[in-house]
Design a protein that fits this description.
By secondary structure, the chain is mainly alpha-helical. The protein has a single domain (2-417), classed as Alpha/alpha barrel (Glycosyltransferase). Helices cover 48% and strands 6% of the residues. It has helices at 2-15, 34-44, 49-61, 85-88, 105-115, 120-143, 157-160, 169-173, 187-190, 199-214, 219-225, 233-252, 258-271, 303-306, 311-321, 354-364, 369-386, 406-417; strands at residues 32-33, 72-73, 90-92, 94-96, 230-231, 275-276, 281-282, 284-286, 291-293, 391-392, 399-400. The strands form 5 sheets. The chain has a 3-stranded antiparallel β-sheet with strand order 5-8-9, covered by helices on one side. A two-stranded antiparallel ribbon has the order 1-2. A hairpin with a 6-residue loop joins strand 10 and strand 11.
Length: 420
């Protein structure tokens, strides 16, 4: 549908500010988000490569001196979003949050470079970008995996990207809400509260955030003292693939990949330790309370995206993935629809997200081409039927959240340009 392709481009351009792009054009997300910008850059690369590279450059302009790339950059400080720049009170050159998000950037950059020829000036730009991404990955290795286990931790549910997923219900239960919290949410005024995280969850998010802030987001200190410390299988799968793609980019640009290559070997081995052979499923681990987390989240299947070298497990994953939405016309719900925690409308507790489908599709391409095409076709149909919304019902395909959503438009462009 040529008209929708043009509309996708107009959606991105309509959400674009000076050098970066908002997740949507309403007041819901009035800043630059880390993994949103990566997905957005991929969309731009199909019609304006310079905009794609600029999106990434602007995100990396907010990189901290230690290497961390924040999950939010507040280029415009005049907004009602909470938590805003004053609530975080941190940043290097640009006001930012004090936490990060899934490091999808190198995987996106590799996709962009695989599909585009770059000139000399762009080559120099990309080389600088790769060096910054390398520093970012080394920050994860040093500070989020101090015991060199090959598996990194997230210290806030927001770092996962799937903020209020039932994966976090167990570790969040243990958190005692800080007394006299004083803040005003804006998200549930812009969007129907039925679609957003509960107030009790938000109280806990702010409590965790305040603890990190109290320790000035010092990466050495907060790893030990954060109220939340989880090794998430989905996040680690994205990081493993990101490291593999980064190693490839470092090779192309004749940069040292020793640290990254060594870490890939450790992760390849230890990610499999999060696999339960009896249940034939991956689990995440709550390090703070030393407990396994078994929740049938679509993010458990991001292991397919990681391209682990284990055909037996990959085949079992695909077999189980095909059962994830057996009773739903549309897929993939963020949580399996027969699970007790499933909610059709509420954010990451049930709805379909285009970026999750995209990750699954990319992971299936070299393992089950027929099913990969089915996932791609379904994902494209959802968008062509309902538009560029933030998330969708797996039961009715009803759209929820923000409209004119940037990564839905961006990934639609990629899917339409992709052949299995």
């Amino acid at each position: 549908m040529k008209n929708l392709i043009n509309k996708a481009k107009k959606t991105l351009l309509g959400n674009r500010k000076k050098g970066y792009t908002l997740p949507t054009n309403n007041k819901l997300y009035p800043a630059q988000w880390n993994w949103d910008s990566a997905f957005i850059a991929l969309g731009y690369s199909y019609f304006n490569l310079n905009y794609a590279l600029k999106e990434i450059q602007t995100l990396l302009d907010g990189q901290w001196k230690d290497g961390m790339v924040p999950h939010i950059l507040f280029h415009d400080t005049n907004n009602n979003y909470y938590p805003n720049h004053t609530a975080w009170n941190c940043g290097n050159k640009i006001h930012s949050s004090g936490i990060t998000q899934p490091p999808i950037l190198s995987s996106i950059l590799k996709e962009i470079l695989d599909n585009n020829k770059i000139n000399k000036n762009q080559f120099l730009t990309v080389k600088k970008i790769i060096k910054k991404i390398k520093k970012y990955h080394e920050w994860f290795i040093k500070f989020r995996d101090p015991k060199n286990s090959g598996l990194v931790s997230i210290l806030h549910p927001w770092e996962s990207g799937y903020d209020n997923s039932p994966i976090w219900d167990s570790p969040m239960k243990k958190i005692v809400i800080e007394k006299n919290l004083n803040y005003k949410r804006a998200d549930n005024k812009v969007v129907n509260p039925e679609y957003r995280p509960l107030n009790v969850d938000y109280d806990k998010y702010v409590t965790i955030k305040n603890k990190l802030k109290k320790h000035n987001y010092n990466p050495k200190t907060v790893f030990k003292l954060s109220l939340f410390n989880v090794v998430d299988v989905g996040f680690n799968s994205i990081f493993l693939k990101a490291n593999k793609d980064l190693a490839n980019l470092l090779d192309q640009f004749k940069l040292d990949k020793t640290v990254i290559s060594n870490y890939i070997k450790i992760t390849e081995k230890n990610l499999l330790k999060l696999y339960d052979k009896k249940k034939e499923t991956f689990f995440s681990k709550d390090l703070r309370h030393n407990r396994r987390i078994y929740v049938p989240s679509i993010s458990n299947y991001f292991v397919l995206f990681a391209d682990i070298n284990n055909n037996i497990i990959n085949k079992k994953l695909i077999k189980n993935l095909k059962k994830h939405n057996t009773k739903s016309e549309y897929f993939f719900s963020s949580i399996k629809s027969n699970h007790k925690s499933f909610e059709e409308k509420r954010y990451w507790r049930g709805p379909i997200w285009i970026n999750c489908n995209w990750l699954i599709y990319k992971g299936l391409k070299n393992k089950d081409e027929v099913y990969a095409n089915k996932v791609k076709k379904m994902t494209v149909q959802i968008i062509e039927k309902k538009g560029f919304y933030e998330y969708f019902s797996s039961r009715s395909c009803k759209p929820f959240g923000a409209k004119n959503f940037s990564w839905s438009a961006s990934l639609y462009l990629d899917l339409k340009n992709n052949k299995c």
